[in-house]
Amino acid sequence: MVTSTGQVEEAAGLLAIDKPEGWTSHDVVARLRRLTGVRKVGHAGTLDPMATGVLLVCLGQATRLVEYLASQPKAYLAEVTLGSATDTYDATGRPTQQSPAPDLDVGALEAALAEFRGPLMQKPPAYSAIKQDGQPLYKRARRGEAVETAPRPVTIYELALLAYQDGRLRLRIRCSAGAYVRSLAHDLGQALGCGAHLSWLRRTAVGAFTIEQAITLEALAQACEAHTWRSLLQPAEAAVAHLPALTLGVDEAQRLLHGQLVARSPEHAVLAGPLRAHGLDGRLLAIVQFDAERQAWRPLKVLAAAKGW
């Protein structure tokens, strides 16, 4: 929508995009800026160019909530090819290990997969978007620099073998934020002694957002041409719908909107993580955290005072 001054009226909300193969996450963000005219656009969790599927994109003031989306669990369908490891841990890389795919039965595969279920320490790929000294690691790796990544804790909630044929495993995976399916494929190959790489990946969900809700870039372009794309936006507060809710009275809401602490009974203090604070009318006001020392709710992000909310 264009105002009388010729400026595009800022939109705020979420879009679940079905990212096509060959596009980077930043390519998608740039495309959305061009299509919608919205300048403030950000994605919630990088998806590699070879991968397809759910990429959550925030527009306008919803970009302030990206961190709460990025921390959500992810679900994938993946194919892992045994007998060939690569430097990127996927099909786009240079081979680093070649060997015949082992003749394994389902029992042996299940035993190997069992070692990767639950909490574990995982080493991210050298070719990753993780920043070190302010620069993504993949840029250093592409320059031929030695890149060392430190293992970090992740959780594989589900790792199901769907099919196995000709050295290729089809897997269903649900994992915590920060887990790399590429690393999982590589580590599985090392455990089996034959090497492996990720040969196909589709993200099917991020938190409660599923592939069935996602829209293709082609469909979005058509909606933009028809000036109906705003109807596709999910409200910005959908980004924090998974957080526990806290309802504040009128006076408490006013204090919070001015960035002040709200002292009250800590009935939600036992809950892990931040909460979303609403007014009596149901409007989302802020993201808050209980301050145990002061026995009060402390605003982490005040939202209701922001333009567009």
Number of domains: 3
- Helix-strand topology string: EHEEHEEEHEEEHEEHEEHEHEEEE
Query: Helix coverage percent of residues?
Result: 10-25%
- Measured by DSSP, the beta-strand proportion falls in 25-35%
- Straight-line N-to-C gap: 17 Å
| CATH overall fold name of the largest domain | Pseudouridine synthase
Total beta-strand segments: 18
Q: What Rg, in angstroms, do the CA atoms define?
A: 22 Å
- The number of helices is 7
CATH homologous superfamily title of the largest domain: Pseudouridine synthase
Main β-sheet, in a few words?
Answer: 9 strands, mixed
Q: If you average the pLDDT, what whole number results? A: 89
Question: What does this protein structure show overall?
Answer:
- This protein has 7 helices and 18 strands.
- It is an alpha+beta fold and 309 residues long.
- It has 3 domains: 83 residues, Pseudouridine synthase, CATH 3.30.2350.10; 133 residues, Pseudouridine synthase (2-Layer Sandwich); 60 residues, PUA domain (Archaeosine Trna-guanine Transglycosylase, Chain: A, domain 4, Roll), CATH 2.30.130.10.
- The N terminus is likely disordered.
- Strands 1, 2, 3, 4, 7, 10, 11, 12 and 13 form a 9-stranded mixed β-sheet that branches.
- The two termini are 17 Å apart.
